[in-house]
Amino acid sequence: MLRIHCPFCGLRDEVEFRYRGDATARRPAAEANEEAFFAYVYARDNPRGWHLEWWLHTHGCRQVLKVKRHTLTHEIAWVGLPADAPPEDAP
Amino acid sequence: MMSSGPAGPYSALRLAWEALRGHRHWRPAWRSVARPRDAYRVVVVGGGGHGLSTAWHLAAEHGITDVAVLEKGPIGLGNVGRNTTIIRSNYFMPENIRFYEHSLKLWERFEQTHGFNAMVSQRGTLNLFHSDGQRDQFARRANAMRIEGVDCELLDRDAVKRLVPLIELDNTRYPVLGGFLQRRGGTVRHDAVPWAYARSASARGVDIVEHCEVTGIRVEAGRVTGVETTRGTVRAEKVVLCVAGHSSRLAEMAGFRLPIETHALQAFVTEAVKPCLDCVVTYGAGHFYISQSDKGGLVFGGAIDGHNSYAQRGQLPMAEEVLAAGKTLMPALSRLRVLRQWAGVMDMSMDGNPIISTTPVGNLYLNGGWCYGGFKAVPAGGFYTAHLVATGAPHPVIAHFALSRFREGRTIDERGAGPYPWAH
Protein backbone atom coordinates (compact mmCIF):
# COMPACT_ATOMS: atom_id res chain seq x y z
CA MET A 1 0.00 0.00 0.00
CA LEU A 2 1.43 3.35 -1.03
CA ARG A 3 0.81 6.24 1.35
CA ILE A 4 0.84 9.63 -0.33
CA HIS A 5 1.27 12.84 1.63
CA CYS A 6 -1.35 15.13 0.07
CA PRO A 7 -0.42 18.79 0.73
CA PHE A 8 -4.11 19.52 1.45
CA CYS A 9 -5.38 16.40 3.22
CA GLY A 10 -2.29 14.91 4.87
CA LEU A 11 -1.03 11.32 4.67
CA ARG A 12 -3.58 9.20 2.82
CA ASP A 13 -3.78 5.63 1.48
CA GLU A 14 -3.21 4.89 -2.20
CA VAL A 15 -6.81 3.71 -2.62
CA GLU A 16 -8.05 7.33 -2.34
CA PHE A 17 -6.04 8.28 -5.43
CA ARG A 18 -6.16 7.58 -9.11
CA TYR A 19 -2.93 7.18 -11.08
CA ARG A 20 -2.57 9.42 -14.13
CA GLY A 21 0.83 8.50 -15.51
CA ASP A 22 4.14 10.11 -16.37
CA ALA A 23 4.28 13.79 -15.34
CA THR A 24 7.27 14.60 -17.54
CA ALA A 25 5.33 14.24 -20.83
CA ARG A 26 4.67 17.79 -22.04
CA ARG A 27 2.21 18.69 -24.77
CA PRO A 28 4.12 20.31 -27.63
CA ALA A 29 3.00 23.49 -29.40
CA ALA A 30 0.18 22.99 -31.89
CA GLU A 31 2.52 23.62 -34.85
CA ALA A 32 5.11 21.06 -33.63
CA ASN A 33 5.99 18.19 -35.95
CA GLU A 34 4.79 14.59 -35.92
CA GLU A 35 7.90 13.41 -34.06
CA ALA A 36 7.15 15.78 -31.16
CA PHE A 37 3.56 14.55 -30.90
CA PHE A 38 4.62 10.90 -31.10
CA ALA A 39 7.03 11.52 -28.23
CA TYR A 40 4.33 13.27 -26.19
CA VAL A 41 1.55 10.72 -26.69
CA TYR A 42 3.50 7.46 -26.79
CA ALA A 43 7.22 7.49 -26.00
CA ARG A 44 8.10 7.05 -22.32
CA ASP A 45 11.35 6.91 -20.34
CA ASN A 46 9.79 4.19 -18.14
CA PRO A 47 12.69 4.34 -15.64
CA ARG A 48 13.53 1.67 -13.13
CA GLY A 49 14.16 4.27 -10.45
CA TRP A 50 12.81 7.73 -9.68
CA HIS A 51 9.68 8.60 -11.62
CA LEU A 52 7.72 11.86 -11.69
CA GLU A 53 4.03 11.02 -11.99
CA TRP A 54 0.49 12.39 -11.64
CA TRP A 55 -1.90 11.21 -8.93
CA LEU A 56 -5.46 12.56 -8.74
CA HIS A 57 -6.81 12.69 -5.19
CA THR A 58 -10.23 11.42 -6.32
CA HIS A 59 -11.62 10.57 -2.90
CA GLY A 60 -10.11 13.57 -1.15
CA CYS A 61 -9.51 17.14 -2.28
CA ARG A 62 -9.75 16.19 -5.99
CA GLN A 63 -6.48 17.99 -6.69
CA VAL A 64 -3.99 16.67 -9.21
CA LEU A 65 -0.68 16.06 -7.44
CA LYS A 66 2.81 15.58 -8.79
CA VAL A 67 4.66 12.77 -7.01
CA LYS A 68 8.27 11.63 -7.18
CA ARG A 69 8.27 7.89 -6.51
CA HIS A 70 10.81 5.10 -6.95
CA THR A 71 9.41 2.39 -9.26
CA LEU A 72 11.44 -0.41 -7.67
CA THR A 73 11.17 0.40 -3.94
CA HIS A 74 7.92 2.48 -4.08
CA GLU A 75 9.57 5.08 -1.84
CA ILE A 76 7.99 8.51 -2.25
CA ALA A 77 10.53 11.36 -2.09
CA TRP A 78 8.36 14.38 -2.81
CA VAL A 79 4.75 15.44 -3.42
CA GLY A 80 3.86 18.82 -4.92
CA LEU A 81 1.34 20.77 -6.94
CA PRO A 82 1.19 20.51 -10.74
CA ALA A 83 3.25 23.65 -11.38
CA ASP A 84 5.91 22.74 -8.81
CA ALA A 85 9.17 20.95 -9.45
CA PRO A 86 10.91 18.66 -6.96
CA PRO A 87 13.85 20.33 -5.17
CA GLU A 88 17.30 19.72 -6.63
CA ASP A 89 18.51 17.92 -3.51
CA ALA A 90 15.68 15.35 -3.57
CA PRO A 91 16.98 11.92 -4.61
CA MET B 1 22.15 -45.52 -25.52
CA MET B 2 18.83 -44.29 -24.30
CA SER B 3 20.54 -42.05 -21.77
CA SER B 4 23.25 -40.99 -24.16
CA GLY B 5 22.98 -37.27 -23.58
CA PRO B 6 20.85 -34.24 -23.12
CA ALA B 7 19.02 -34.77 -26.39
CA GLY B 8 17.96 -38.35 -25.72
CA PRO B 9 14.22 -38.79 -26.17
CA TYR B 10 11.90 -39.15 -23.20
CA SER B 11 9.53 -42.13 -23.35
CA ALA B 12 7.72 -44.60 -21.12
CA LEU B 13 10.35 -47.17 -22.07
CA ARG B 14 13.18 -44.87 -21.02
CA LEU B 15 11.42 -43.99 -17.79
CA ALA B 16 11.14 -47.71 -16.95
CA TRP B 17 14.78 -48.31 -17.91
CA GLU B 18 16.04 -45.41 -15.79
CA ALA B 19 13.83 -46.55 -12.89
CA LEU B 20 15.47 -49.97 -13.02
CA ARG B 21 18.84 -48.23 -12.80
CA GLY B 22 17.70 -46.22 -9.78
CA HIS B 23 17.30 -42.92 -11.64
CA ARG B 24 21.04 -42.30 -11.35
CA HIS B 25 21.71 -41.74 -15.04
CA TRP B 26 19.46 -38.89 -16.07
CA ARG B 27 21.45 -36.04 -17.62
CA PRO B 28 20.72 -32.30 -17.65
CA ALA B 29 18.16 -31.49 -20.32
CA TRP B 30 20.35 -28.90 -22.00
CA ARG B 31 24.04 -28.01 -22.33
CA SER B 32 25.11 -25.48 -19.77
CA VAL B 33 27.38 -22.89 -21.37
CA ALA B 34 29.36 -21.03 -18.72
CA ARG B 35 30.73 -18.31 -20.98
CA PRO B 36 29.48 -17.00 -24.32
CA ARG B 37 31.84 -17.14 -27.31
CA ASP B 38 33.25 -13.88 -28.72
CA ALA B 39 30.84 -13.76 -31.64
CA TYR B 40 27.56 -15.22 -32.84
CA ARG B 41 25.37 -14.72 -35.85
CA VAL B 42 22.36 -13.98 -33.63
CA VAL B 43 22.28 -13.02 -29.95
CA VAL B 44 18.91 -13.37 -28.21
CA VAL B 45 18.73 -11.26 -25.04
CA GLY B 46 16.44 -12.93 -22.51
CA GLY B 47 16.02 -16.65 -21.73
CA GLY B 48 12.31 -16.57 -21.06
CA GLY B 49 9.54 -18.11 -23.12
CA HIS B 50 9.84 -15.78 -26.10
CA GLY B 51 13.65 -15.73 -26.15
CA LEU B 52 14.01 -19.52 -26.05
CA SER B 53 11.14 -19.99 -28.51
CA THR B 54 12.79 -17.50 -30.89
CA ALA B 55 16.15 -19.29 -30.59
CA TRP B 56 14.60 -22.70 -31.25
CA HIS B 57 12.60 -21.44 -34.24
CA LEU B 58 15.74 -19.81 -35.66
CA ALA B 59 17.48 -23.19 -35.49
CA ALA B 60 14.57 -25.43 -36.46
CA GLU B 61 12.80 -23.31 -39.11
CA HIS B 62 15.65 -21.27 -40.56
CA GLY B 63 18.74 -23.43 -39.99
CA ILE B 64 20.44 -20.65 -37.99
CA THR B 65 22.21 -22.45 -35.15
CA ASP B 66 25.01 -19.96 -34.45
CA VAL B 67 22.81 -18.44 -31.76
CA ALA B 68 23.32 -17.50 -28.09
CA VAL B 69 20.54 -16.91 -25.59
CA LEU B 70 21.83 -14.61 -22.83
CA GLU B 71 19.85 -14.73 -19.58
CA LYS B 72 20.67 -12.55 -16.55
CA GLY B 73 19.50 -15.22 -14.06
CA PRO B 74 18.54 -18.87 -14.46
CA ILE B 75 16.12 -19.49 -17.33
CA GLY B 76 12.43 -19.69 -16.57
CA LEU B 77 12.35 -17.50 -13.46
CA GLY B 78 10.90 -14.41 -15.17
CA ASN B 79 7.39 -13.99 -16.48
CA VAL B 80 7.29 -17.43 -18.12
CA GLY B 81 7.35 -18.88 -14.61
CA ARG B 82 5.07 -16.27 -13.03
CA ASN B 83 1.94 -16.30 -15.20
CA THR B 84 -1.39 -18.08 -14.66
CA THR B 85 -0.66 -20.61 -17.46
CA ILE B 86 -3.68 -19.84 -19.65
CA ILE B 87 -3.77 -20.43 -23.41
CA ARG B 88 -6.60 -19.19 -25.68
CA SER B 89 -7.25 -17.36 -28.94
CA ASN B 90 -10.55 -15.61 -28.15
CA TYR B 91 -9.74 -12.13 -29.49
CA PHE B 92 -11.86 -9.66 -31.40
CA MET B 93 -9.53 -7.91 -33.86
CA PRO B 94 -9.03 -10.21 -36.91
CA GLU B 95 -5.25 -9.71 -36.96
CA ASN B 96 -5.09 -10.74 -33.29
CA ILE B 97 -7.32 -13.78 -33.83
CA ARG B 98 -5.01 -15.01 -36.61
CA PHE B 99 -1.85 -14.58 -34.55
CA TYR B 100 -3.16 -16.12 -31.31
CA GLU B 101 -4.92 -18.94 -33.19
CA HIS B 102 -1.62 -19.87 -34.80
CA SER B 103 -0.12 -19.92 -31.31
CA LEU B 104 -2.92 -22.15 -30.02
CA LYS B 105 -2.36 -24.56 -32.94
CA LEU B 106 1.35 -24.69 -32.04
CA TRP B 107 0.41 -25.44 -28.40
CA GLU B 108 -1.76 -28.32 -29.62
CA ARG B 109 1.31 -30.08 -31.02
CA PHE B 110 3.88 -28.61 -28.61
CA GLU B 111 4.53 -31.83 -26.71
CA GLN B 112 4.92 -33.95 -29.85
CA THR B 113 7.24 -31.35 -31.39
CA HIS B 114 9.57 -31.21 -28.37
CA GLY B 115 9.09 -34.68 -26.88
CA PHE B 116 8.44 -32.99 -23.56
CA ASN B 117 5.46 -33.26 -21.24
CA ALA B 118 4.10 -29.74 -20.80
CA MET B 119 0.70 -30.93 -19.56
CA VAL B 120 -1.14 -29.06 -22.31
CA SER B 121 -4.74 -29.29 -21.20
CA GLN B 122 -7.53 -27.99 -23.44
CA ARG B 123 -10.04 -27.75 -20.64
CA GLY B 124 -11.81 -24.71 -22.11
CA THR B 125 -11.80 -21.00 -21.26
CA LEU B 126 -15.12 -19.53 -20.15
CA ASN B 127 -15.68 -15.76 -20.06
CA LEU B 128 -18.80 -14.79 -18.13
CA PHE B 129 -21.11 -11.90 -19.01
CA HIS B 130 -23.42 -10.03 -16.69
CA SER B 131 -25.41 -7.60 -18.84
CA ASP B 132 -27.18 -7.47 -22.20
CA GLY B 133 -24.53 -5.13 -23.56
CA GLN B 134 -21.75 -7.48 -22.55
CA ARG B 135 -23.59 -10.42 -24.14
CA ASP B 136 -23.92 -8.51 -27.42
CA GLN B 137 -20.23 -7.66 -27.32
CA PHE B 138 -19.33 -11.33 -26.79
CA ALA B 139 -21.70 -12.38 -29.58
CA ARG B 140 -19.89 -9.98 -31.89
CA ARG B 141 -16.53 -11.33 -30.75
CA ALA B 142 -17.76 -14.90 -31.28
CA ASN B 143 -18.82 -14.03 -34.82
CA ALA B 144 -15.47 -12.38 -35.53
CA MET B 145 -13.74 -15.55 -34.34
CA ARG B 146 -15.99 -17.86 -36.38
CA ILE B 147 -15.30 -15.82 -39.52
CA GLU B 148 -11.64 -16.71 -38.94
CA GLY B 149 -12.57 -20.38 -38.41
CA VAL B 150 -11.89 -20.39 -34.66
CA ASP B 151 -14.14 -22.34 -32.26
CA CYS B 152 -16.29 -20.59 -29.69
CA GLU B 153 -19.85 -20.71 -28.42
CA LEU B 154 -22.24 -18.68 -26.30
CA LEU B 155 -23.73 -20.41 -23.26
CA ASP B 156 -26.88 -19.51 -21.37
CA ARG B 157 -27.14 -19.52 -17.57
CA ASP B 158 -28.09 -23.18 -17.28
CA ALA B 159 -25.22 -24.29 -19.48
CA VAL B 160 -22.79 -22.22 -17.39
CA LYS B 161 -24.10 -23.83 -14.20
CA ARG B 162 -23.79 -27.32 -15.70
CA LEU B 163 -20.23 -26.64 -16.84
CA VAL B 164 -18.98 -24.97 -13.64
CA PRO B 165 -21.22 -25.68 -10.62
CA LEU B 166 -18.92 -23.59 -8.39
CA ILE B 167 -20.10 -20.33 -9.99
CA GLU B 168 -22.72 -18.46 -7.97
CA LEU B 169 -25.02 -17.38 -10.84
CA ASP B 170 -27.20 -15.17 -8.65
CA ASN B 171 -24.42 -13.47 -6.73
CA THR B 172 -25.78 -10.23 -5.35
CA ARG B 173 -23.42 -7.85 -7.11
CA TYR B 174 -23.24 -9.04 -10.71
CA PRO B 175 -25.59 -11.96 -11.51
CA VAL B 176 -24.32 -14.12 -14.37
CA LEU B 177 -26.36 -14.02 -17.59
CA GLY B 178 -24.26 -16.48 -19.54
CA GLY B 179 -20.82 -17.27 -20.88
CA PHE B 180 -18.54 -17.24 -23.87
CA LEU B 181 -16.68 -20.53 -24.18
CA GLN B 182 -13.65 -21.50 -26.22
CA ARG B 183 -13.34 -25.23 -25.69
CA ARG B 184 -9.85 -25.40 -27.25
CA GLY B 185 -8.50 -22.93 -24.71
CA GLY B 186 -6.96 -24.21 -21.50
CA THR B 187 -3.74 -24.34 -19.52
CA VAL B 188 -0.14 -25.47 -19.96
CA ARG B 189 2.37 -26.24 -17.25
CA HIS B 190 4.34 -23.00 -17.60
CA ASP B 191 7.69 -24.19 -16.16
CA ALA B 192 7.88 -26.97 -18.73
CA VAL B 193 7.78 -24.48 -21.59
CA PRO B 194 11.23 -22.87 -21.21
CA TRP B 195 12.67 -26.28 -20.32
CA ALA B 196 11.29 -27.86 -23.49
CA TYR B 197 12.51 -25.03 -25.72
CA ALA B 198 15.91 -24.94 -24.00
CA ARG B 199 16.33 -28.67 -24.50
CA SER B 200 15.32 -28.61 -28.17
CA ALA B 201 17.33 -25.48 -28.96
CA SER B 202 20.40 -26.76 -27.15
CA ALA B 203 20.19 -30.05 -29.05
CA ARG B 204 20.39 -28.05 -32.28
CA GLY B 205 23.50 -26.18 -31.17
CA VAL B 206 22.10 -23.03 -29.57
CA ASP B 207 24.21 -21.79 -26.62
CA ILE B 208 22.13 -20.98 -23.54
CA VAL B 209 24.16 -18.80 -21.17
CA GLU B 210 22.65 -18.25 -17.73
CA HIS B 211 23.77 -15.58 -15.24
CA CYS B 212 24.94 -13.41 -18.11
CA GLU B 213 23.35 -9.96 -17.92
CA VAL B 214 23.46 -7.59 -20.87
CA THR B 215 24.78 -4.23 -19.66
CA GLY B 216 25.17 -2.39 -22.96
CA ILE B 217 24.32 -2.59 -26.65
CA ARG B 218 27.04 -1.73 -29.17
CA VAL B 219 25.85 0.36 -32.07
CA GLU B 220 28.14 1.55 -34.90
CA ALA B 221 26.91 3.74 -37.74
CA GLY B 222 23.29 3.04 -36.84
CA ARG B 223 23.66 -0.75 -36.79
CA VAL B 224 24.02 -3.10 -33.87
CA THR B 225 27.37 -4.91 -33.65
CA GLY B 226 27.04 -6.77 -30.37
CA VAL B 227 26.33 -6.55 -26.67
CA GLU B 228 28.32 -5.86 -23.50
CA THR B 229 27.62 -8.42 -20.79
CA THR B 230 28.73 -9.28 -17.28
CA ARG B 231 30.71 -12.07 -18.99
CA GLY B 232 32.44 -9.94 -21.60
CA THR B 233 31.69 -8.44 -24.98
CA VAL B 234 29.78 -10.58 -27.47
CA ARG B 235 29.77 -9.54 -31.12
CA ALA B 236 26.72 -10.38 -33.22
CA GLU B 237 25.38 -9.79 -36.70
CA LYS B 238 21.87 -9.50 -35.28
CA VAL B 239 20.49 -8.95 -31.79
CA VAL B 240 16.93 -9.69 -30.60
CA LEU B 241 15.49 -8.26 -27.39
CA CYS B 242 13.04 -10.68 -25.72
CA VAL B 243 12.96 -9.10 -22.27
CA ALA B 244 9.32 -8.07 -21.78
CA GLY B 245 9.02 -6.14 -18.53
CA HIS B 246 12.43 -4.56 -19.12
CA SER B 247 12.27 -3.69 -22.84
CA SER B 248 12.51 0.04 -22.10
CA ARG B 249 15.82 -0.42 -20.27
CA LEU B 250 17.38 -2.35 -23.15
CA ALA B 251 16.02 0.18 -25.65
CA GLU B 252 17.63 2.95 -23.62
CA MET B 253 20.98 1.15 -23.94
CA ALA B 254 20.47 1.23 -27.71
CA GLY B 255 19.48 4.91 -27.67
CA PHE B 256 15.73 5.00 -28.26
CA ARG B 257 12.48 5.13 -26.25
CA LEU B 258 9.47 2.79 -26.50
CA PRO B 259 5.68 3.26 -26.20
CA ILE B 260 5.77 1.05 -23.11
CA GLU B 261 5.38 1.37 -19.34
CA THR B 262 6.32 -1.35 -16.86
CA HIS B 263 3.60 -2.48 -14.45
CA ALA B 264 3.31 -5.26 -11.87
CA LEU B 265 0.71 -8.02 -12.28
CA GLN B 266 -0.07 -10.30 -9.35
CA ALA B 267 -1.13 -13.93 -9.17
CA PHE B 268 -2.21 -16.18 -6.33
CA VAL B 269 -2.51 -19.88 -5.55
CA THR B 270 -4.49 -21.59 -2.81
CA GLU B 271 -3.79 -24.79 -0.93
CA ALA B 272 -4.45 -27.91 -3.02
CA VAL B 273 -7.96 -29.37 -2.95
CA LYS B 274 -9.71 -32.18 -4.80
CA PRO B 275 -10.70 -31.44 -8.42
CA CYS B 276 -13.52 -28.87 -8.41
CA LEU B 277 -12.90 -26.65 -11.42
CA ASP B 278 -12.13 -28.23 -14.81
CA CYS B 279 -12.30 -25.05 -16.87
CA VAL B 280 -10.59 -21.64 -16.93
CA VAL B 281 -13.15 -19.04 -15.81
CA THR B 282 -12.97 -15.28 -16.18
CA TYR B 283 -15.36 -12.97 -14.40
CA GLY B 284 -16.76 -10.32 -16.71
CA ALA B 285 -17.69 -7.80 -14.02
CA GLY B 286 -14.31 -7.53 -12.38
CA HIS B 287 -10.86 -8.38 -13.58
CA PHE B 288 -10.55 -11.93 -12.28
CA TYR B 289 -9.58 -15.28 -13.78
CA ILE B 290 -9.22 -18.67 -12.15
CA SER B 291 -8.29 -22.24 -12.94
CA GLN B 292 -7.26 -25.31 -10.98
CA SER B 293 -3.75 -26.65 -11.40
CA ASP B 294 -3.14 -30.36 -11.81
CA LYS B 295 -1.68 -30.34 -8.31
CA GLY B 296 -5.04 -29.08 -7.01
CA GLY B 297 -4.31 -25.46 -6.13
CA LEU B 298 -6.65 -22.81 -7.44
CA VAL B 299 -4.59 -20.37 -9.48
CA PHE B 300 -6.03 -16.90 -9.98
CA GLY B 301 -5.23 -13.29 -10.72
CA GLY B 302 -6.69 -9.94 -11.65
CA ALA B 303 -5.62 -6.60 -13.04
CA ILE B 304 -2.25 -4.85 -12.85
CA ASP B 305 -1.51 -2.83 -9.72
CA GLY B 306 -2.11 0.36 -11.69
CA HIS B 307 1.08 2.40 -11.34
CA ASN B 308 4.51 2.00 -12.94
CA SER B 309 6.45 -0.67 -11.07
CA TYR B 310 9.54 -2.79 -11.58
CA ALA B 311 9.01 -4.52 -8.22
CA GLN B 312 8.26 -8.21 -8.70
CA ARG B 313 5.84 -8.19 -5.80
CA GLY B 314 2.25 -6.97 -5.59
CA GLN B 315 0.52 -4.30 -3.54
CA LEU B 316 -2.32 -4.98 -1.12
CA PRO B 317 -5.14 -2.89 -2.71
CA MET B 318 -5.14 -5.07 -5.84
CA ALA B 319 -4.83 -8.24 -3.76
CA GLU B 320 -7.97 -7.22 -1.88
CA GLU B 321 -9.82 -6.43 -5.10
CA VAL B 322 -8.90 -9.78 -6.68
CA LEU B 323 -9.91 -11.77 -3.60
CA ALA B 324 -13.21 -9.88 -3.35
CA ALA B 325 -14.02 -10.56 -7.00
CA GLY B 326 -13.18 -14.24 -6.53
CA LYS B 327 -15.40 -14.59 -3.49
CA THR B 328 -18.28 -12.83 -5.24
CA LEU B 329 -18.07 -15.21 -8.17
CA MET B 330 -17.36 -18.40 -6.20
CA PRO B 331 -18.32 -17.98 -2.53
CA ALA B 332 -16.85 -21.42 -1.81
CA LEU B 333 -13.40 -19.90 -2.27
CA SER B 334 -13.73 -18.14 1.08
CA ARG B 335 -13.06 -21.48 2.79
CA LEU B 336 -9.64 -21.81 1.16
CA ARG B 337 -6.33 -20.42 2.30
CA VAL B 338 -4.08 -18.55 -0.11
CA LEU B 339 -0.76 -20.34 -0.13
CA ARG B 340 1.35 -17.95 -2.18
CA GLN B 341 1.11 -14.60 -3.88
CA TRP B 342 3.64 -13.16 -6.33
CA ALA B 343 3.98 -10.69 -9.19
CA GLY B 344 5.72 -10.27 -12.49
CA VAL B 345 6.51 -7.03 -14.27
CA MET B 346 4.82 -6.48 -17.63
CA ASP B 347 5.65 -4.43 -20.68
CA MET B 348 2.33 -2.55 -20.86
CA SER B 349 2.23 -1.09 -24.36
CA MET B 350 0.26 2.01 -25.29
CA ASP B 351 -2.43 0.07 -27.18
CA GLY B 352 -2.42 -3.13 -25.14
CA ASN B 353 -0.89 -5.15 -27.96
CA PRO B 354 2.56 -6.66 -28.44
CA ILE B 355 5.45 -5.41 -30.54
CA ILE B 356 7.38 -7.76 -32.85
CA SER B 357 9.39 -5.40 -34.92
CA THR B 358 12.51 -3.92 -36.41
CA THR B 359 13.78 -0.94 -34.38
CA PRO B 360 15.43 2.42 -35.17
CA VAL B 361 18.79 0.58 -34.89
CA GLY B 362 19.73 -1.65 -37.83
CA ASN B 363 19.78 -5.43 -37.21
CA LEU B 364 18.30 -4.92 -33.72
CA TYR B 365 14.88 -6.52 -33.30
CA LEU B 366 12.28 -6.30 -30.55
CA ASN B 367 9.85 -8.87 -29.18
CA GLY B 368 8.01 -7.19 -26.29
CA GLY B 369 4.99 -5.21 -25.17
CA TRP B 370 3.14 -8.40 -24.23
CA CYS B 371 1.01 -6.80 -21.50
CA TYR B 372 -0.94 -9.59 -19.74
CA GLY B 373 -0.83 -11.93 -22.70
CA GLY B 374 2.73 -13.10 -23.29
CA PHE B 375 2.49 -16.70 -22.14
CA LYS B 376 -0.12 -17.99 -24.58
CA ALA B 377 1.80 -16.24 -27.38
CA VAL B 378 5.15 -17.95 -26.70
CA PRO B 379 5.07 -20.45 -29.61
CA ALA B 380 3.84 -18.02 -32.28
CA GLY B 381 5.83 -15.12 -30.83
CA GLY B 382 9.03 -17.12 -31.26
CA PHE B 383 7.94 -18.38 -34.68
CA TYR B 384 7.34 -14.89 -36.10
CA THR B 385 10.26 -13.23 -34.30
CA ALA B 386 12.61 -15.85 -35.74
CA HIS B 387 11.12 -15.24 -39.19
CA LEU B 388 11.66 -11.50 -38.80
CA VAL B 389 15.28 -11.96 -37.69
CA ALA B 390 16.09 -14.53 -40.38
CA THR B 391 14.54 -12.63 -43.29
CA GLY B 392 14.79 -9.03 -42.05
CA ALA B 393 11.15 -8.39 -42.99
CA PRO B 394 7.98 -8.99 -40.96
CA HIS B 395 5.67 -11.86 -41.89
CA PRO B 396 2.23 -10.56 -43.04
CA VAL B 397 0.57 -12.16 -39.97
CA ILE B 398 2.53 -9.89 -37.61
CA ALA B 399 3.05 -6.82 -39.80
CA HIS B 400 0.53 -4.95 -37.64
CA PHE B 401 2.69 -5.51 -34.53
CA ALA B 402 5.35 -3.13 -35.92
CA LEU B 403 6.71 -0.40 -33.69
CA SER B 404 5.90 2.12 -36.43
CA ARG B 405 2.15 1.68 -35.84
CA PHE B 406 2.18 4.23 -33.02
CA ARG B 407 3.85 6.91 -35.15
CA GLU B 408 1.55 6.19 -38.07
CA GLY B 409 -1.71 6.16 -36.09
CA ARG B 410 -2.44 2.48 -36.80
CA THR B 411 -2.67 1.23 -33.22
CA ILE B 412 -4.62 -1.98 -32.58
CA ASP B 413 -6.74 -1.03 -29.62
CA GLU B 414 -8.59 -4.26 -28.76
CA ARG B 415 -9.96 -2.69 -25.60
CA GLY B 416 -10.39 0.88 -26.82
CA ALA B 417 -8.70 2.38 -23.76
CA GLY B 418 -6.41 4.89 -25.47
CA PRO B 419 -2.71 5.51 -24.78
CA TYR B 420 -2.97 4.81 -21.04
CA PRO B 421 -1.06 1.60 -20.30
CA TRP B 422 -2.43 1.31 -16.76
CA ALA B 423 -5.99 1.19 -18.22
CA HIS B 424 -5.51 -1.85 -20.48
Highlighted features:
heterodimer; A: 91 residues; mainly beta; 4-stranded antiparallel β-sheet; two-stranded antiparallel ribbon; 1 helix; 35% strand; globular; B: 424 residues; alpha/beta; FAD/NAD(P)-binding domain; D-Amino Acid Oxidase, Chain A, domain 2; 3 domains; 8-stranded mixed β-sheet; 11 helices; 18 strands; 26% strand; disordered N terminus
Layout: helices, strands, pairs:
The complex is a heterodimer of chains A (91) and B (424).
Chain A (H helix, E strand, L loop, with lengths): L2 E4 L3 E4 L4 E5 L11 H8 L8 E7 L7 E7 L5 E5 L11
Antiparallel strand pairs in A: 1-2, 3-4, 4-5, 5-6
Chain B lengths: L11 H9 L18 E7 L3 H14 L4 E4 L15 E2 L6 H15 L1 H5 L10 E5 L2 H16 L5 E4 H7 L14 E5 L3 E2 L4 H12 L3 E3 L4 E7 L2 E7 L2 E10 L5 H8 L5 E13 L7 E4 L4 E5 L4 E12 L7 H14 L8 E12 L5 E4 L5 E5 L9 H14 L12 H4 L17
Parallel strand pairs in B: 1-2, 1-11, 2-8, 4-13, 11-18
Antiparallel strand pairs in B: 3-7, 4-6, 5-6, 9-10, 10-11, 12-15, 12-16, 13-14, 14-15, 17-18
Describe the structure.
- The complex is a heterodimer of chains A (91) and B (424).
- Chain A is globular, with a radius of gyration of 14 Å.
- Chain A starts with a strand and ends in an 11-residue tail after the last strand.
- Chain A is mainly beta.
- In chain A, the strands form 2 sheets. In chain A, strands 3-4-5-6 form a 4-stranded antiparallel sheet, with no helix packed on it.
- Chain A has one helix at 34-41; strands at 3-6, 10-13, 18-22, 50-56, 64-70, 76-80.
- Chain A has 1 helix and 6 strands, in the order βββαβββ.
- With 424 residues, chain B is α/β, with parallel strands linked by helices.
- Chain B folds into 3 domains: 1-30, no CATH class; 36-83 and 191-257 and 351-423, FAD/NAD(P)-binding domain (3-Layer(bba) Sandwich); 112-188 and 262-343, 2-Layer Sandwich (D-Amino Acid Oxidase, Chain A, domain 2).
- In chain B, strand 9 (214-220) and strand 10 (223-229) form a beta hairpin.
- In chain B, helix 3 (94-108) crosses helix 10.
- The interface between A and B is medium-sized, with 26 and 26 residues.
